[in-house]
């Protein structure tokens, strides 16, 4: 009798242990998030591993590793699953291909004239923009926007080795 009772006890213990293991496996909502970014210098390939991570977080890690500014304004933040090694600019472009984005690059003379990203902006989606009502700009706001645009053009021209010209001189007639 003692042998049969201990066998039943062992069987119940095994069933309980298996039940707990199955519960632990299937009770999580999603697999854990993982992001790794590996990089060398200049134009060397970048390794990006992302598992179930929000796009904004993956881009932030890339921005930190590659030393560029990043601004994420989109309402949507898709989950990324990626394990790739390649050119940093191409990897970033592949990640944001379905997003509304703006990317600024700079030719780095220290890196054999390799283009590197200096700023990436993920802009509001079309649906996001429609939710924000358009406002009429007041005169001071319009002047400030004009000043910012002229300053941006000036920075662009200087960064490409051109003389800082007045906007009117660049107009096509």
Strand order, sheet with most strands: 1-2-4
Per CATH, what is the topology of the largest domain?
A: Phage tail protein beta-alpha-beta fold
Q: Estimate nothing, just give the exact number of structural domains.
A: 3
Mean pLDDT equals: 75
Class by alpha and beta content: alpha+beta
For the termini, the CA-CA separation is 105 Å
Please give the CATH class of the largest domain: Alpha Beta
Number of beta-strand segments: 6
Helix content: 40-55%
Largest sheet: 3 strands, antiparallel
Radius of gyration, CA atoms, in whole angstroms: 27 Å
Uncertain segments of ≥5 residues (pLDDT<50)? 21-30, 128-135
Shape: flat
Count of helical segments?
A: 6
Can you lay out the helices and strands and say which pair or pack?
Layout: H1 2-26, E1 34-39, E2 46-54, H2 55-66, E3 69-72, E4 79-86, H3 88-96, E5 101-108, E6 114-122, H4 126-131, H5 139-159, H6 167-170
Parallel strand pairs: 3-6
Antiparallel strand pairs: 1-2, 2-4, 5-6
Helix pairs in contact: 2-3
């Amino acid at each position: 009798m003692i042998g049969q009772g201990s066998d039943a006890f062992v069987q119940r213990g095994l069933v309980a242990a298996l039940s707990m293991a199955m519960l632990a496996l299937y009770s999580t909502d999603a697999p854990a998030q993982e992001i790794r970014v590996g990089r060398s210098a200049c134009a060397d390939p970048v390794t990006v591993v992302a598992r179930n991570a929000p796009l904004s977080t993956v881009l932030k890690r890339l921005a930190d590793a590659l030393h560029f500014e990043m601004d994420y304004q989109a309402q949507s933040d898709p989950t990324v699953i990626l394990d790739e090694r390649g050119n940093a600019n191409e990897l970033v472009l592949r990640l944001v291909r379905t997003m509304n984005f703006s990317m600024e690059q700079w030719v780095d003379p220290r890196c054999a004239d390799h283009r590197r990203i200096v700023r990436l902006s993920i802009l509001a989606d079309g649906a996001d923009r429609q939710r924000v009502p358009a406002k009429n700009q007041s005169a001071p706001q319009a002047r400030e926007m004009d000043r910012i645009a002229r300053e941006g053009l000036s920075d662009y021209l200087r960064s490409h080795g051109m003389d800082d010209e007045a906007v009117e001189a660049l107009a096509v007639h």
